[in-house]
């Protein structure tokens, strides 16, 4: 089985779903994290990459700037491509009622990519 977390920021998967991802990888399942924003010179990004490694997760980085997640065709198409490659059976997304603009946009992008 493959589980995928689609998150806005580098540390969101570890904060919001770290236990779930760890449980799946511990049980021998594959886990993948898609991070919308990533700026390698930021400490948070480096720490999140190490966190994903420790959780046993592979990672795709879309490289959008922090506070720059937008529901665009380009970002949605990239997610469609990743979903087609990874083919997850379980998705972990931001809460649709989350009021953080990047979290809201990440949820909307994931929903659009799935439709």
Question: How would you explain this protein's 3D organization?
Answer:
By secondary structure, the protein is an alpha/beta fold. It has helices spanning 12-26, 43-55, 73-86, 101-114, and strands at residues 2-7, 30-37, 58-64, 90-92. The chain has a single domain, classed as Rossmann fold (3-Layer(aba) Sandwich), CATH 3.40.50.10320. The chain is built from four helices and four strands, in the order βαβαβαβα. The protein starts with a strand and ends with a helix. The mean pLDDT is 93.
Describe the protein's topology:
Blueprint: E1 2-7, H1 12-26, E2 30-37, H2 43-55, E3 58-64, H3 73-86, E4 90-92, H4 101-114
Parallel strand pairs: 1-2, 1-4, 2-3
CATH architecture level-2 label: 3-Layer(aba) Sandwich
The CATH homologous superfamily is named LmbE-like
Structural class comes to alpha/beta
- The whole-number mean of residue pLDDT values reads 93
Secondary-structure element string: EHEHEHEH
Distance from first to last alpha carbon = 21 Å
Overall helicity: 40-55%
Largest sheet: 4 strands, parallel
Q: How many individual helices?
A: 4
Q: Give the class-level CATH name.
A: Alpha Beta
Cα radius of gyration in angstroms:
13 Å
CATH-assigned fold name: Rossmann fold
Quote the beta fraction.
Answer: 15-25%
Q: How many strand segments? A: 4
Poorly predicted residue ranges: none
Query: How would you sum up the global shape?
Result: globular
Tally of structural domains: 1
Strand order of the biggest β-sheet: 3-2-1-4
Give the tags.
115 residues; alpha/beta; Rossmann fold; four-stranded parallel beta sheet; 21% strand; globular
